[in-house]
Each structure stands twice: as C-alpha cells, then as structure tokens.
Amino acid sequence: MAEGITTGSGHEPPHATERHAKAVAFTIDFGALGNSADYKIAGWQKPESGFTWTLGTLSSLKFPRPEEPGRYALELHIAPFVWKDRLAAQRMFVTVNDEQVGKFAVEREEVVLCEIPWSVLELRSTCVVEFALPDSAEPAQINGVPDTRSIALAFNEVRLIRLEDKPAEALGVTPPTSGRYPALPPTGEALTELMMRFESLGEDCEFGLVQRRCGAEPLGLLRFSSSPLPKLIAAMEAKFEGLGAPDMIKVELASSGREYMVLDKRFGLYYHAWVLAGEKSPEEVHARECSRLPFLANKLREDLEGAEKIFVYRGMRPLAESDVLKLAATMRTFGPTTLLWVEVADAEHETGSVEEVAAGLWRGNIERFAPANNAHDFSLEAWIGICHNAEALRHTLKSFVG
C-alpha cells in the first residue's frame, strides 16, 4: 500500500492516543450523537450508533485549514463491508484538496494514517477530503442480507493530527478494540463457520444453544454444563483430572422429569445428558458418560493448549472483573488462550461491543440474557454481533503482533 500507513503495516503499535494526544487538532465522531454533520459534504448514509456507512463510490468531508503551519495527518478509524471470496477488501483512495495522500485495501477493522504535507493545505482556507471507494456494493447482491444500500466503509472517527517533527511511522496508530462497527451478520455456511471458532465454558447452556441455532454443533465438555466460576476454576487448576471416574458420576432425572442430567461429583459440574427418560436406562447413560467425559476433558485440554478457539463464559449473575481475571489466568496455564467474558451492556459498555480487558481476556456486551425459565429465548442477533466483533478484534490484534 503506497502512501499511507495501516495497522497491518508491520510497525510497532505504540498507543497513539498517549503519544500524540496534544497534537490532535480535532476529532470527527460519526456516531448518531456525534458531530460529523458539521463536516460531511456528500456520500454518507444516515448515522447509526457509533458509526456511519459511506454511500456510493465517493464520500467527502470539509473542515477549516489548521492555523499553524506544519505537517499533519488524518487518522481514520474504519471497518469495511467484505464477504469471503466475493468481496475480500474495500479499496480506498484518499485525496485532500485534489492531492492523493493515501491508498489502501481495507480487509478488516483498522486505523489508517494519511500524512498531509503543509503544501497541500496552505493554498486554501478549507480542506476538502474525498474518499474514492470503487468497490462499494449492496449487501443484498453480495451475501443475500436484505440491505440494498451501496456501502463500502463504516467510519467511526476521523482525527486531524499535527505530526510535529516525528515521522508518521513513529507515531503509530491505536488498534481498534471496541468492536463498535456493524456486524452485517454472516448467514448460512459462513455463520456456522464463525460459530465453530468459539467454545462455551458455561455457566449455563445459552451460548451452546446459540451455536445450535446457527447450525454449529462443536464437541465441548462444558457446552451444556452448569459450571459456576469457582467450580470451573478448581476444575481448570486440577487439569480436569479424575473427571468421568465411574464412582464420581451420578445420573438423575431433571426436575421436569423429562430428561436425564449428569452430576460430576469430582468438581460439582452439572450437565445435560440429552437423553429423554425412557430412551435409555440410568445405567446406560452412566456407562456412556464414563466413556464420554474423559474424552471431552482431554479434548478441552488440547483446545486450551492450542489456543485457536475463543472461549466464552457468562455468569448467571454479574461477575466481578477480578474474578474473571482469575479464570483467564488459570486458562493461560494451558496456553495463550482468549476468554470472551459476556455481561449485560450498561452506560459504559455498548451492546455488541467487544473490548480487551487484559491479555487473554475480552469483555463482550449483550442487551440481555435468556430468562432463567426459557433458555431458548436468547438474543440471537446480539450474540452473532458479539462473535463477529470478537473475530474482528482477533484479526486486528494479530496484525499488530505480526
């Protein structure tokens, strides 16, 4: 990519907001409550919560020229509309006052930096920025989503930064970690594929049922388990040794009397057997679990060591961050795992957002959980959005490591 720097450029990613906070001339916020209407000329969709999509193949902004001469840069916080092999990236050509200052192929949520020489700014009292977007497309034509808008990029923020005497490369950019952008949700095989990259650790079966609704049926020890946090941490610390021992397994009917449940007396974990009363005898279910549980425990250990999946945990009650950090730390004794801890959104955490809390721990935020008396009444769209944003965050962070 000539003329521009992206989060995937291989440069070390220092925290830009710390290193050039005083050099930010102004920020354009593209959220529904932001100030972007003061700067937009043409080529924009209606603002949404936290972002605005571009409209068509050309979008433009206008702002006053900085008063102080010097070297400046535009910092663009953006995410593309892409779809597997049909639309792998969105090309973007950036011009300021008719001079090209950057060109990019945007494949995922990124922050890009376009340096603007003073010679481009000084001849006019205002700056006109144009984003040429030749790959803008209608989602309905690309992936079947019922959306006929012509879109290319979702803009969250644009900042004008004074570079002072540092080269743009030295300033770096801040990795986006909030998952603020719209998940044009994947469907069909792509949705199933997405959900297979996650594994539930409990505390209940809600996320396992979400995966089932999306056509994903991964094998998982705790997918349909009641696994309160202290018991889960104890099992992790013991590496699940002894799970499935015949004298530690108790098979009983659920309170409904319709299906069997399995109690692991070793760690106190409680599972759905997914066997209806009358289909098998308790002895047959017991024999099956003696074989199944050790196999699944070994598979979970391997998955934790491999650290390829994103592990999901939600508590039956709100959890303290310090307690979840204990779980994340215990998990990382197996390997460089990632734990996605999901809580109900609040004033500080937007629904659908995913943010990095600490190394190996992310927080996802959902509008609501399923009620205790109806586990199937979950917010499917919100869960899909969280998983979509978690996957985007994983790609973003990998680009910085790489």
Task: Give a short summary of the structure.
The protein has 402 residues and is an alpha+beta fold. It has helices at 16-19, 118-121, 139-142, 168-171, 188-195, 206-213, 229-237, 282-306, 321-331, 380-401, and strands at residues 24-29, 40-42, 52-53, 58-64, 72-80, 90-96, 99-106, 110-116, 126-132, 153-162, 198-200, 225-226, 249-253, 259-264, 269-276, 310-313, 338-344, 354-358, 361-366.
Query: How far apart lie the N and C ends?
Result: 17 Å
Main beta-sheet annotation: 5 strands, antiparallel
CATH topology of the largest domain: Jelly Rolls
Structural classification:
alpha+beta
Fold and architecture overview:
This protein is 25% helix and 28% strand. The protein is an alpha+beta fold. It folds into two domains: 16-171, Galactose-binding domain-like (Jelly Rolls, Sandwich); 188-226 and 233-241 and 300-401. A hairpin with a 4-residue loop joins β14 and β15. The longest helix has 25 residues, at 282-306. The chain starts with 15 loop residues before the first helix and ends with a helix. Mean pLDDT is 85; it is low at 1-22 and 173-181.
